[in-house]
From TrEMBL:
One Pfam family this sequence matches: Arg_decarbox_C
Molecular-function GO term, any one: metal ion binding
Domain Orn/DAP/Arg decarboxylase 2 N-terminal: 103-350
Upper taxonomic lineage: Bacteria, Pseudomonadati, Pseudomonadota, Gammaproteobacteria, Cellvibrionales
EC number: 4.1.1.19
Protein name, as recorded: Arginine decarboxylase
């Protein structure tokens, strides 16, 4: 829908694309349509098909699936699996590598049923398997995989029950590996495999001494809490040999950490892992599989650098580096090339999900009631600050800044001592704000901004209140300062005219987004459009498919959002393949051990006693009880009626 009435001829969708960086972080999946909507593009039968996200939103609303909602695009998920597998296949064939790639998806990265089903279903053509870090995840893997050439890799601490399940998977023909986290685990595996008469497939997780850049640099290297020390690794070999089971040791596992932004770290990690691999071969282990764990990064910033939220390499380069590093180490020793496994989670699922929410309200820091002239009888301080407003300009802004704050504080002080009225205080604060606003407009023209004024634009920026909970839907933004790209879904043919930070619905001061990626780095605010009366303004937070969906919590009892899975067709139409209604208030209350029926009954008693005491009529009681019932069964987020 092009709204010609306010199309700005000096602003184009290309300007918006550059401003929001969508052509870099969008990785070809996201862009802006000619009419100014955010759109998703997928390849179907070698043809690009684009769909406006606003059209999908309209379809969601028609189905009573309101904001906030997670939108997943099936085709994007499929495409990620395809490019990952094909990039390895291509590096293998051009690099003359003598074995295959077998990806496994680490379930912890997105356990949602439909995501896992899709990976199992679409991934089968590439024998894409699963990595499970707990019994629950192994149960998911076992129930979803049909293809017995797909691997199951079991990490994490495993009890006898976990091990039995894995051994049964072996019996049913699945290549299911136990990756040892400790020596004590090995004893149970040996014992259970004897009892069940199933030979286990065993892997060992090494501790890499390579330090990686990025957020998880603390967790890499010797201090990693995971993995066997080199001495423990030798212990495993000796124990397996003693049990006459050294032939079961077939895999080396090396996970450098997640979101490894620097290709040099990847290369060094693989080189070290190959030394370990060769060492285990020399010890007489059968080997055959090299699992390089996760770490393949996502360029959330689109910056192509080795900064934490970016990456300085492409997928193809990642694969080629791995192939080359393995050949470089193993070929001189005449060791057969192993099956390469990667547990790429983030890179597989990040792109396919986005969080959509509407903006409920804006708090601007504009003065609300700036007087044109002061009342004649007002106090001296007000007169002084008003004079400052009348003279502030390029030549004296520094002085005016100091004076404005001085007089404002003086008036606050007078108020606190009973010598100024509430109205006078309001006026002084508004005048001060107006002075700061004028100074902020001067700053961009300065060659050098005084340090004390650097934060001024951000202090004066708007706050856009979004209908979502950061804690539920974007937990990594809160927990580890993760950056996600954010862009309006529409009006992108218009120049955004506001600078804003975003606050969520929780009344928590951490429930805000005030760190955004820009073309030149990060900023505390992002450009947004003014709200228009009677019209929704919808923002998308992109690349949220990894880790966000289950790490979220119930802060302020905002529950799971609505979720829709859309499959795009070749003709540009799309199907709502799945839809899930988010938690109702009753749902979230049961999580914290309330019983909705009991709540309703308790409230009925409250209402009944109000009838008895004459506060409300019986008819009003019915109306109130219905409102209570409707709320209990409604969405935990802000609803339009
Ligand atoms: C978390 C994790 C992964 C996934 O890492 P990504 O960086 O998301 O690909 C893979 N393997 C192990 C052992 C993990 O703990």
């Amino acid at each position: 829908m092009v709204d010609h009435t306010d199309t700005d001829t000096r602003w184009s969708v290309a300007d918006s694309a550059e401003l929001y960086g969508v052509n870099t972080w969008g990785a070809g999946y996201f862009s802006i349509s000619d009419s100014g909507d955010a759109q998703v593009t997928v390849s179907i039968d070698e043809r690009d098909v684009s769909v406006s996200l606003m059209d999908i939103v309209a379809g969601m609303r028609a189905r009573n699936l309101e904001m906030p909602a997670v939108l997943r695009i099936k085709n994007v998920l499929d495409h990620r699996i395809k490019v990952l597998n094909e990039a390895f296949a291509s590096a293998i064939s051009t690099g003359g590598y003598g074995n295959v790639y077998r990806g496994v998806f680490p379930i912890k990265v997105n356990q949602q049923c439909h995501v896992i089903e899709e990976i199992a279903d679409y991934g089968a053509r590439y024998h894409h398997g699963f990595e499970a870090g707990s019994k629950a995840e192994l149960i998911i893997a076992l129930s979803q995989l049909r293809d017995t050439d797909s691997l199951i890799v079991c990490n994490g601490y495993k009890d006898a029950e976990f091990i039995d399940l894995g051994l049964y998977a072996r019996r049913m023909g699945y290549p299911c590996f136990f990756v040892l986290e400790s020596l004590s685990e090995l004893k149970v595996i040996i014992e259970r495999s004897r009892i069940l008469e199933v030979e286990p497939l065993i892997g060992v997780r090494m501790k890499s001494s390579v330090k990686v850049d990025g957020h998880w640099s603390q967790d890499s290297g010797d201090r990693s809490i995971f993995g066997l020390s080199t001495a423990a690794l030798i212990g495993v070999v000796d124990e397996l040999r003693a049990a006459d089971m050294l032939h079961c040791l077939q895999m080396l596992h090396c996970h450098l950490g997640s979101q490894v932004p620097n290709i040099r770290n990847v290369r060094n990690g693989v080189l070290e892992a190959c030394r370990f691999y060769a060492g285990l071969v020399a010890e007489g282990a059968t080997m055959g599989y090299l699992d390089l764990g996760g770490g393949l990064a996502v360029d959330y910033e689109g910056a192509r650098t080795n900064s934490t939220h970016s990456m300085n390499y492409q997928l193809e380069e990642y694969c080629v580096n791995i192939i080359e590093s393995i050949r470089e180490t193993l070929d001189p020793q005449g060791i057969d090339h192993p099956v390469i496994i990667s547990e790429s989670g983030r890179a597989t699922v990040a792109y396919s999900s986005m969080l959509l929410f509407n903006v409920l309200d804006v708090r601007s820091s504009e003065p609300l009631a700036l007087p044109a002239v002061l009342p004649g009888d007002c106090n001296e301080t007000l007169k002084h600050i008003f004079d400052v407003l009348n003279v502030v300009g390029t030549g004296n802004f520094q002085e005016c800044y100091n004076d404005a704050l001085f007089y404002r504080d003086e008036l606050r002080d007078m108020f606190n001592h009973g010598r100024a009225t509430l109205r006078e205080r309001a006026m002084a604060e508004d005048i001060c704000l107006a002075i700061l606003q004028r100074i902020a407009t001067i700053l961009p023209s300065l060659a050098r901004v005084p340090p004390e004024l650097e934060n001024l634009p951000e202090m004066l920026s708007d706050i856009y209140y979004g209908n979502f909970s950061l804690f539920q839907s974007l937990p990594d933004m809160w927990a580890i300062d993760q950056l996600f790209p954010i862009m309006p879904l529409h009006r992108l043919h218009q120049q955004p005219d506001r600078q804003a930070m975003i606050a969520d619905l929780t009344c928590d001061c951490d429930g805000k987004i005030d760190n955004f990626s820009t073309a030149t780095g990060t900023a505390a605010t992002m450009p947004l459009h003014s709200l228009r009366e009677g019209e929704d303004y919808i923002l998308g937070v992109f690349l949220v498919g990894a880790y966000q969906e289950t790490l979220g919590d119930l802060h302020n009892l905002f529950g799971d959002t609505n979720v829709v899975n859309v499959a795009i067709n070749a003709d540009g139409s799309f199907d709502f393949a799945r839809e899930f209604h988010g938690d109702s208030i009753a749902d979230v209350l049961t999580y914290v051990e309330y019983e909705p029926k009991h709540l309703q009954e308790q409230f009925r008693k409250v209402a009944e006693s109000a009838v008895r005491s004459g506060c409300i009529s019986v008819a009003e009681r019915q109306q109130i009880l219905r409102a209570f019932h409707d709320s209990l069964n409604g969405y935990t987020y802000f609803e339009h009626h």
